Amino acid sequence: MPTFAVKKLDEFECNLNIFALVRDGICFYDDAVNELMKDGNLRKELKRVYALIQFVGNHGTRHKNIHQLKDIPNFTTWELKTNHLRFYFLYGQGMMIISGGKKVDQKADISQLKSILKQLPNNFNDVHQGRIAGGS
User: Fold this and answer.
1) From CA 35, how far away is CA 68, in angstroms rounded?
2) Partner of 57 for a Cys bridge, out of 16, 48, 88, 122, CB 3.0 to 4.6 A?
3) What pTM, to 2 d.p., does this model score?
């Protein structure tokens, strides 16, 4: 059984705490950002993702580039979109970023997202209820 933790993302200064999900020591958010930073064409767009995360942290999910995914069971899951990038997160009293990647990989990323959410232990349902606590 995988081990899950949350990691507080201190690079965002906003009203809401921003976290990333970690499974077995791997942070999917960090992996996505590191991979996207290698592509010079996507660096500017990644800055837009950061701005949208900051927006959610201060103003909520009401933005034209943020949409709720309807086909994810058990969790209210959101997609943050730019022209070529997609990031997926849970939102409540905190924001937990699950994963992200390129638009061209969107189907595979959503399949991975569903798989990750299925593996979460029952007590992680507190995330869905907006009670994100702690961090590693």
Assistant:
1) 25
2) 16
3) 0.86
